[in-house]
Amino acid sequence: MCDAYGASKVIWFDGVRGQDITDDHVDATSRFLAPGKALVQMPLASDNDAYANDARRQYQVLSTSTTATGSAMTVTTLQGPDYNKIRSTNQNFLASYANYYLCNGAVISANFGDTTADGAAKATLARLYPDRVIEQLNIDRLGTGGGGIHCVTQQQPIA
């Protein structure tokens, strides 16, 4: 991978083989914010499904990783919603605040009807992106397909 992409280091997550078509919706869990800075959406302590355990592993990997230059990673956590309090009752629904889209002057994220978690996610994103407006959208129809805002926008980096 380093040769193919011209990188000097790769941080690898094992994923959740056989659970979905991608073996992990990593952009629903972890995001790089800037060089040496990452975000991980954490499940509730009581959540113990494959994706919750994977999120905890991603946090562990990032928290113990270093950048290509050897500096420690700084990892911010974003609390995920309580699936018992969200609007959707679809068992395949993916409730991810971390699956957001960055656009000119804004962060487009989701809300799920867990008002406490929705508000906390908005506050965390506002702290991480102080110069941007945080817009939360109801994506209940989108989330039943297993995706989110970042999944359907597919933005490309400048360089």
Overview of the structural elements:
It is a single chain. The longest helix is centred in the middle third of the chain and has 14 residues. The strands form 2 sheets. The protein has a 3-stranded mixed sheet with strand order 1-2-3, sandwiched between helices. Helix 2 links the parallel strand 2 and strand 3. The protein has one domain: L-arginine/glycine Amidinotransferase, Chain A (5-stranded Propeller). The model has no long low-confidence stretch (mean pLDDT 88). The protein is globular. The protein is 26% helix and 20% strand. It is built from 5 helices and 6 strands; from the N terminus they run H-E-E-H-E-E-E-H-E-H-H. The protein is of the alpha/beta class and 159 residues long.
Furnish the topology, listing elements before pairings.
Blueprint: H1 2-5, E1 30-34, E2 37-42, H2 50-63, E3 74-79, E4 101-103, E5 106-111, H3 115-128, E6 133-138, H4 140-143, H5 149-153
Parallel strand pairs: 2-3, 5-6
Antiparallel strand pairs: 1-2, 4-5
Question: What attributes characterize this protein structure?
Answer:
159 residues, alpha/beta, L-arginine/glycine Amidinotransferase, Chain A, 3-stranded mixed beta sheet, 5 helices
**Strand content range:** 15-25%
Question: Which series of helices and strands comes N to C?
Answer: HEEHEEEHEHH
What radius of gyration results from the CA coordinates?
16 Å
The helix content is 25-40%
Kindly report the CATH topology: L-arginine/glycine Amidinotransferase, Chain A
Major sheet characteristics? 3 strands, mixed
CATH architecture: 5-stranded Propeller
Spans of at least 5 consecutive residues whose pLDDT stays below 50 are: none
CATH 4th-level superfamily: L-arginine/glycine Amidinotransferase, Chain A
Q: Structural class of the secondary elements?
A: alpha/beta
The end-to-end span amounts to 18 Å
Task: Tell me, rounded to a whole number, the average pLDDT.
Answer: 88
Q: How many beta strands in the DSSP annotation?
A: 6
> How many helix segments?
5
